[in-house]
Amino acid sequence: ARRYGLTWQTNNLADKTVITRQGQRITAAMIRDAVQHQLEQAGATGLMEIVLDQRNLEIYLPLTVKSDFAIYDLHYDQQAQRFRAELQVAADTPNFQQMVLTGRVVPMVEVATLKTSLSPGTTIGEGDIQWMKLPVERAGDALRQANAVVGMTLRRQLPEQSLLRKTDVMPPHVVLRGQIVTMRIRQQNLELSAQGRALQDGAVGEVVRITNTQSNRVVEAKVMAPGLVEIMTTPQLASLQE
């Protein structure tokens, strides 16, 4: 206050003064983006996250100086997933700064999460999911492709924002227990069909038990499509015909 001729005096120990000035800053996010760009230029591929060892790095410059910075001599150890580089700020000005940057490169992957809580048996649509980036080492068996999620059904209740894993979803049932289905068997030039009643729910590709409605014989058949199953084994041909 004396230095700048301010008529100010504290009333108690809790008083404080905050002095600010206009300026511009170079943030850690800007520097991380620059490091990532250089890594990609050098041939690094895939999603990644740059983690600086200088976590709270921020550089302030006056408004009269152009806020230029550059990354030089970037060295990346792919096996250790570590990098080292030189940061230069406001080159050719009185505010020139340089420092060594070090940090990690974390491989990332996009995984599916639920937007809202869904009940068991719900068919998942595109609008039910959103994508989140996770480190590869933490992603585990989380689903990473839309075709592995959309159209599938939930096995159990999951809260919103839950990661969707392989064990959380299953193909939708296209044959339901008690449903009348067409049983089919094909062998070389022979194809036979008959009517049956499903004893189990089943998705495409699953094997379910079916009762022949004429003979009451129980056979096992592979679900091929809604309302259609196919008997795969030769010994069951007689069961279909009886």
Please explain how this structure is put together.
The termini are far apart. 10% of the residues lie in helices and 40% in strands. The longest helix is centred in the first third of the chain and has 14 residues. It has 242 residues and is mainly beta. The strands form five sheets. Strands 2, 4, 5, 6 and 7 form a five-stranded antiparallel β-sheet that branches.
Strand content: 35-45%
Low-confidence stretches: none
Largest sheet entry: 5 strands, antiparallel
Order of helices and strands: EHEEEEEEHEEEEEEEEEH
Helix content: under 10%
Radius of gyration, CA atoms, in whole angstroms: 33 Å
End-to-end distance: 105 Å
General form:
elongated
Give the integer mean of the pLDDT values.
88
What's the total count of β strands?
A: 16
Structural class: mainly beta
How many helix segments? 3
Key structural traits:
elongated, 242 residues, single chain, 3 helices, five-stranded antiparallel β-sheet, mainly beta
Task: Give a brief rundown of this model.
The protein is mainly beta.
Reconstruct the topology from this structure:
Layout: E1 24-27, H1 28-41, E2 48-52, E3 58-61, E4 69-77, E5 82-89, E6 97-114, E7 129-135, H2 136-139, E8 153-154, E9 169-170, E10 173-175, E11 180-187, E12 190-198, E13 202-203, E14 207-212, E15 218-225, E16 228-230, H3 237-241
Parallel strand pairs: 11-16
Antiparallel strand pairs: 1-3, 2-6, 4-5, 5-6, 6-7, 8-9, 10-13, 11-12, 12-14, 14-15, 15-16
